[in-house]
Amino acid sequence: MTDPAGLTVGAILERSTRALVEAGVSAPRADALAIASHVLGVDRGGVIARLPDPVPPALARRLGDLIDARARRQPLQQILGRVEFHGLTLAVDAAVLIPRPETEELVDAVLAEPLPERARVADWGTGSGCIAIALAVARPSWSLIAVDVSPAALEVAARNARERGVADRIRLVAADFRVPHATEPLDAIVSNPPYVAEEEWRALAPEVRDHEPKLALVSGPRGDEAYAALLPRAFAGLAPGGLLALELGWTSEGAVRTLAAASGFREIGVRPDLQGIPRILTARR
């Protein structure tokens, strides 16, 4: 976007919207408003109220830089540095997958299951920590282990746990989920593992393909490799009757059901997301 210095809020907003339309952004006006709100330090209604006001040069340049980043298809959540998840505001950056509404449904599925009052729960592939933190907030008597192979992701998870006041109940572990990391059997294991096939990843929107960590998205050529590695380890790590809860890719149900049964799980069930796609698998050891 050309230098916006000296322009009013309204003029910058119009220029921003046009730039995002030209870049192919799906919600250009809403994203321009969100970025203006972030830079100006007001809510979206406050942006509208200030449309005739001139923008100080430093803020105008900052707003222009962020609009340019969005036009390059950097996700809005990364630009703002935050995302809303399960009623919580969490920090996100390029080191972690941006939490999706489908993963909120995974949290709800775990909370709906009968578990011990002082359950020990592991979140495998924690990323931003969104699952572990949401569970810890909802169940103050639970203790959690949040595992990720990425040290940079664990830094984000640690920050989020501190800011949400649950850091004392979440143990962060830098490890692959194939490696044992619990000293005693767990009451539940929950995971949103990588489930995108390599070929599918190439066709993803630029916001995802070019800006979110491939490690958190792609499991291998088929898309079920992470499940195949995870399920036997989860069975071994759970106490008898322990819960497994997994987020599924949009074509994963058949393969994961088969893998879960072959690993020894029972009471295997799958529930759809709001679009009717089989999304959450639960099973018991």
Task: Explain what you see.
The chain has about 280 residues and is an alpha/beta fold. The chain folds into two domains: about 10-70; about 85-285, Vaccinia Virus protein VP39 (Rossmann fold). Helix content is about 45%, strand content about 20%. The chain is built from 13 helices and eleven strands. The chain has helices spanning about 10-20, 30-40, 45-50, 55-70, 75-80, 100-110, 130-140, 150-165, 200, 205-210, 215, 225-235, 255-260; strands spanning about 80-85, 90, 120-125, 145-150, 170-175, 185-190, 195, 220, 240-245, 265-270, 280-285. It has a seven-stranded mixed β-sheet, sandwiched between helices. α1 packs across α2. The termini are far apart.
Summarize the structure.
This protein is α/β, with parallel strands linked by helices and 285 residues long.
